[in-house]
Write a structure and sequence with these properties.
- With 91 residues, the chain is α/β, with parallel strands linked by helices.
- A 3-stranded parallel sheet has the order 1-2-3, with helices on one face.
- It is 40% helix and 14% strand.
- The longest helix has 10 residues, at 36-45.
- It is built from 4 helices and 3 strands, in the order H-E-H-E-H-E-H.
- It has a single domain (22-89), classed as Rossmann fold.
Amino acid sequence: MLALLDSDGDKYRAYFAEHGIPQAILLDLHLPFVSGSELLKELRADARFANVPVLVMTADILRARVLQEQGERVLLKPVSMMRLQEILSHL
């Protein structure tokens, strides 16, 4: 399993260009150089990601509610590794 840790939010395009489309994406909304919300919009507008589940992680409960209403999978931080493994195993 390939994994990418893009803690800044600005390297994912190069990674996808080199390695292809991932099976799932874990997206934190609060990234240093990119708005996680904007990145999510970008992913949703790209047909290549139409079938890729995006698990959005945030500590902002109000933002989490809005995203869930839009049909996104939202996890409130902190998120345990056991919870992530459980969710990813069902995808």
